[in-house]
């Protein structure tokens, strides 16, 4: 089986000590492709270099949690980077962009301005988006209705059925990862079962959003030690989705892989090589 991790921050400092081993474990587990989204302008070349080094895909964008430390000129840096790498087949999206209305004290107006500006850059580049959505699905959908882009993925979706429908109507697939593995994540699990099969893609968000077995699987972690997620956890996360949907693992790999390629069409050529 071939698995696609549609959201993995392999450039994160948590992987600096053993990045090669992390990706080797993922490959051994059957993860053949991952998308590495940038979160800040200073990370653009790093995610691109890693994607080329490991044969992966990448996205360029400014994360909503980083916009307050970003300079307005970073939007121009993004525009220039998208133009400079327009012919790079490993550049598959603009991301991670979006809105975060969960973390208190953030400047929503600045987030909105950066979000809309990056949607316009994605539209002009003809690229889909990878969107961060946390308590902000209505605002995300409003922006997508205002500025149409070539589809993409709503990463770590956890909204209402109506919001899922709204984002799907805007051409976005919905990302499911480690949060789905917790039995108490009732809303996410309902979505995993009720949404059309064509709406679902898999992700880890590594090193973040660890599945339950990393959080509760050992005494030190139960005691409060941090749990680092890895792309190699994706097949086991997929197994949870398979159990919820009543699918085989093969069916899950085929369906979610097809959905990922539909959301990020440049993945088709990368996986054909």
Gap from first CA to last CA: 17 Å
Mean pLDDT: 95
β-strand number: 8
What is Rg?
Answer: 17 Å
Query: How does the helix and strand content classify structurally?
Result: alpha/beta
Strand content: 15-25%
Q: Main sheet, how many strands, which sense, barrel?
A: 8 strands, parallel
SS summary, helix count: 12
**SSE arrangement, N to C:** EHEHEHEHEHEHEHEHHHHH
Level-1 CATH class name: Alpha Beta
Proportion of residues in helical segments: 40-55%
Say which CATH homologous superfamily is assigned.
Answer: Metal-dependent hydrolases
CATH architecture: Alpha-Beta Barrel
Give the strand order, joined by hyphens, for the main sheet: 1-2-3-4-5-6-7-8
Low-pLDDT sequence parts: 219-225
Q: Which geometry do the CA atoms define?
A: globular
Task: Estimate nothing, just give the exact number of structural domains.
Answer: 1
CATH topology: TIM Barrel
Keywords:
alpha/beta, TIM Barrel, 15% strand, single chain, 8 strands, 273 residues
Produce a short descriptive summary.
By secondary structure, this protein is of the alpha/beta class. It has helices at about 20-30, 45-55, 75-85, 110-125, 135-145, 160-170, 185-195, 210-215, 220, 235-245, 250-265, 265-270, and strands at about 5, 30-35, 55-60, 90-100, 130-135, 150-155, 170-175, 200. The chain is globular, with a radius of gyration of 17 Å.
Task: Describe the model.
The chain has about 270 residues and is an alpha/beta fold. It has a single domain (about 5-270), classed as Metal-dependent hydrolases (TIM Barrel). The chain is built from 12 helices and 8 strands. It has helices at about 20-30, 45-55, 75-85, 110-125, 135-145, 160-170, 185-195, 210-215, 220, 235-245, 250-265, 265-270, and strands at about 5, 30-35, 55-60, 90-100, 130-135, 150-155, 170-175, 200. Strands 1-2-3-4-5-6-7-8 form an 8-stranded parallel β-sheet. The longest helix is centred in the middle third of the chain and has 18 residues, at about 110-125. Residues about 220-225 have low confidence and may be disordered.
